[in-house]
Amino acid sequence: MKGNPLLELYRDEQLLVVHKPAGLLVHRSPIDKHETEFALQYARSLNGGEHVYPVHRLDRPTSGVMVFARDPETARSVGLAMMSGEVSKTYLAMVRGWPPGEGEIDHPLREEPEDRRLKGQEQPVREARTRYRILATTEIPVAIEKYPTSRYAMVELYPETGRKHQLRRHMKHISHPIIGDANHGRGRHNRYFAERFGEGRLMLAATRMAFVHPVTGNLMTFEAPLEQSFLQVMSIFPGFRYPPADAVSSA
């Protein structure tokens, strides 16, 4: 196994928290049957070869905070907190256009099955809510679609439910798709940034997570740095730094 791509952010007897890079699957998936490297195996290596338990999802192209439990009881406890909305999550995204300054997207989503063989079957629709706020906007003198200039925004996203691809689907729903999103984004914009910066990536990062520790009862807040590939694209926002001075937990 090559060098471990995970950056350890925190560890105690119950938890292992890491930064997962973009492009790394959390665990084996029927969608990527031929993939051989997973965050789960690298986290197990950090844990001295002992088993760890992912307590939430983080899509392959998304970078950022990833929490593993070091025992089944902790996994169950944190998992229940996730399902009951007791875990605060913050994401940073770069989107096409300028959304309203802040708001809530309350738009139910149809479940997306992992197994392609189930794609043709009717799937249930679940409630889904995401809050957001704009942190910065920019306009570049490049005609990508029908206008002589192109507008983008940096937004913080706070999912209040945990549906598959929720943030990507919700931003598409309000016509401000995330840059680099191959499935729900705008191809011309994705191609422009991939060509300008020499590589394409989903401009979505899990930057902060907070929840009550299942053993100590203390409020734990974990933050992850942005990857260099993210910072390179974010450079089109002159003077913007993250986190902003007024950044607060979404809890």
TrEMBL record:
One of its GO terms (molecular function) is tRNA pseudouridine(65) synthase activity. Its EC number is 5.4.99.26. Residues 102-124 are annotated as: Disordered. Pfam families: PseudoU_synth_2. The keyword Isomerase applies. GO terms for biological process: enzyme-directed rRNA pseudouridine synthesis; tRNA processing. This is tRNA pseudouridine synthase C. Residues 104-124 have a biased composition (Basic and acidic residues). It catalyses: uridine(65) in tRNA = pseudouridine(65) in tRNA.
